[in-house]
């Protein structure tokens, strides 16, 4: 049930020499464990998240989630793997403006059939947990920034993913809202027994995680 990344290497072609972004990155996390990854802009934090989230393949190296290599799957199976096992929270909430909060949270379930009461019940329960039980019919424009991000967290968890990936999840929030989102992510991942990895510039957010690492010069190192 672990996430295991082994010797991840990622480079991009340029007119000169290849640009190496990740070099021999390895990590292992188990359900309920949480990791914050820090590093300067351009250090490869988002690239690492994209590889772990099966959005972009590594140049070399392996990723296994629940013992399965997503890059060994055919394209339709890879899409299903991402939908069912991985949740994403981004700096921008990416809520659909024409849909209400409940509908936005249910969007990841639409590729599964049938869509029915059990999934709607889970969506309502998650929204209650994130403090939006009274906002189900509201559209994103009627919510604060912190409320929109809380809805995005609920949406990321709707399919009960094993892996939750957060890319600067508090970057657009004020300090109070950022603190609440950090606490919410950690609390829900403990409850759901999900693996949580967040990349961030925020030392305040990183301090809420029991494990912290820094990505510099393409290499991942523990922060003491």
Model description:
The chain is an alpha/beta fold. It is built from seven helices and nine strands. The protein has a single domain, classed as Rossmann fold (3-Layer(aba) Sandwich), CATH 3.40.50. 33% of the residues lie in helices and 25% in strands. It has a six-stranded mixed beta sheet, sandwiched between helices. Helix 4 crosses helix 5 (145-157) and helix 5 (145-157) runs parallel beside helix 6. The longest helix has 18 residues, at 175-192. 38% of the residues are buried. The mean pLDDT is 93.
Q: Sum up the overall morphology in one term.
A: globular
| Quaternary organisation of the protein chains | single chain
The poorly predicted ranges are none
The main β sheet shows up as: 6 strands, mixed
Any key phrases for this structure?
single chain; 224 residues; alpha/beta; Rossmann fold; 6-stranded mixed sheet; 3-stranded antiparallel sheet; 7 helices; 25% strand
Task: Briefly summarize what is shown.
With 224 residues, the protein is an alpha/beta fold. Helix content is 33%, strand content 25%.
Blueprint of the fold:
Elements: E1 3-12, E2 19-29, E3 34-38, H1 45-52, E4 60-65, H2 75-85, E5 86-89, H3 101-106, H4 117-129, H5 145-157, E6 163-167, H6 175-192, E7 195-199, H7 203-206, E8 211-216, E9 219-222
Parallel strand pairs: 3-7, 3-8, 5-6, 6-7
Antiparallel strand pairs: 1-2, 1-4, 8-9
Helix pairs in contact: 4-5, 5-6
